[in-house]
Design brief:
The chain has 312 residues and is α/β, with parallel strands linked by helices. The protein contains six helices and 19 strands. It has two domains: 3-117 and 244-310, FAD/NAD(P)-binding domain, CATH 3.50.50; 120-240, 3-Layer(bba) Sandwich (FAD/NAD(P)-binding domain). Helix content is 22%, strand content 29%. α4 links the parallel β11 and β12 (172-176). The structure holds NADP nicotinamide-adenine-dinucleotide phosphate. NADP nicotinamide-adenine-dinucleotide phosphate is lined by residues 119, 121, 153-159, 161, 178-179, 183, 241-244, 286-287.
Length: 312
């Protein structure tokens, strides 16, 4: 088994990880990025990105991540095409990392930027419709559905936020919730229920999708639990807001995690329960989940790691 000793290892190659890499590399910390299963993170799966500052003509998610990677490489960031499978802390406070390709590393400072993943309904055709009617981000994709009818699935704060955002762009928003009461905070629930462009469909469960001849979404079939009937809702967009899972399973027992798996933050947002271990982006931020915020957290984590290393 090959072993190497690293000053800074960054786990994850999305916006947070690559931004951390750019800063750590420019600080001459010679960072190594464990790129994980999805090089470029969730953004590399998005199509058009319209809200990343500095791109008035839009940018493809893949292209944006490619540019970030090139920028990190320009300053001599190294990449390991592997996944972290185990991590532990030695008595000497060094982080031991075990990778899926059999390599073992020791890292003085560690930046966790493993992101999160969306929950999906698990219905047939769902994955194929991503980018063709199904979205997981109203802020990113809502504009493509302006003046059209759309559905938001879920009953939490995210679903309410998505519905309110879409109500400013779309003609009509159906909020489809499986129970008779929203999980969201009172204020968000009240705003949604009072909105004249949002119709809440209670006790309603998505059952299947219908597409047009080009494979784009045209309708959602919804099962009403009370009437035991199915309704076909014509809509061109469906926004899923049924919760997220942070990709932090591998860090259980290594650092403190919140009950729902998010990295527990310290005195400042990028600190974790272990000195020298920092976390950035969607694995620790349950609120914003925006590329720019993940990037800024990555930068903050790199600066904190640099400061921490200089005191060692
Ligand atoms: P959440 O609170 O876990 O809500 C997920 C919603 O999706 C629930 O209503 C749930 O229904 C529904 N759901 C889950 N699985 C489903 C399925 N298979 N089919 C249909 N519906 C399903 O998630 P969230 O809304 O993303 O919020 C996560 C956390 O972030 C919360 O603490 C929230 O307060 C916070 N947050 C805060 C803000 C803000 O303050 N502005 C904004 C966004 C999120 P049930 O209710 O029946 O379980």
């Amino acid at each position: 088994m090959s072993k190497s000793f690293e000053r800074v290892v960054i786990v994850g190659s999305g916006c947070a990880g690559l931004s951390a890499a750019i800063y750590a590399a420019r600080a001459q910390l010679n960072p190594l990025v464990i790129q994980g299963e999805m090089l470029g993170g969730l953004l590399s799966q998005t199509t058009e990105v319209e809200n990343f500052p500095g791109f008035p003509e839009n940018v493809q998610g893949m292209d944006l991540m490619d540019r970030m990677r090139k920028q990190a490489e320009k300053f001599a960031t190294r990449f390991e095409n592997a996944k972290l499978v185990k991590v532990e802390r030695t008595k000497e406070n060094v982080n031991r990392l075990f990778l899926s390709n059999g390599k073992e590393l020791q890292a003085q400072a560690l930046i966790i930027a493993t992101g999160s993943r969306h929950n999906f309904l698990g219905l047939e055709g769902e994955q194929k419709l991503l980018g063709k009617g199904i979205s997981v981000c109203a802020t990113c994709d809502g504009f493509f559905y302006r003046n059209e009818d759309v559905c938001v699935i879920g009953g939490g704060d995210s679903a309410c936020e998505e519905a309110l955002y879409l109500s400013r762009i779309c003609q009509k928003v159906y909020l489809i919730h499986r129970r008779d009461r929203l999980r969201a905070s009172k204020i968000m629930s009240e705003r949604v229920c009072a909105h004249n462009r949002i119709e809440v469909m209670w006790n309603s469960v998505p059952q299947g999708f219908e597409c047009d001849e080009h494979g784009f979404l045209k309708a959602l079939n919804v099962f009403h639990k009370e009437t035991q009937s199915v309704q076909k809702l014509m809509c061109s967009g469906i926004f899923l807001a049924i919760g997220w899972k942070p990709n932090t399973e591998v860090f259980k027992g290594f650092i403190d995690l919140e009950i729902d798996g998010y990295v527990k933050q310290g005195r400042i947002a990028v600190e974790t329960s272990l000195p020298g271990v920092f976390a950035a982006g969607d694995c620790t931020d349950r609120k914003y989940r925006q590329a720019c915020i993940a990037a800024s957290m990555g930068i903050q984590a790199a600066l904190e790691a640099e400061g921490w290393l200089s005191h060692q």
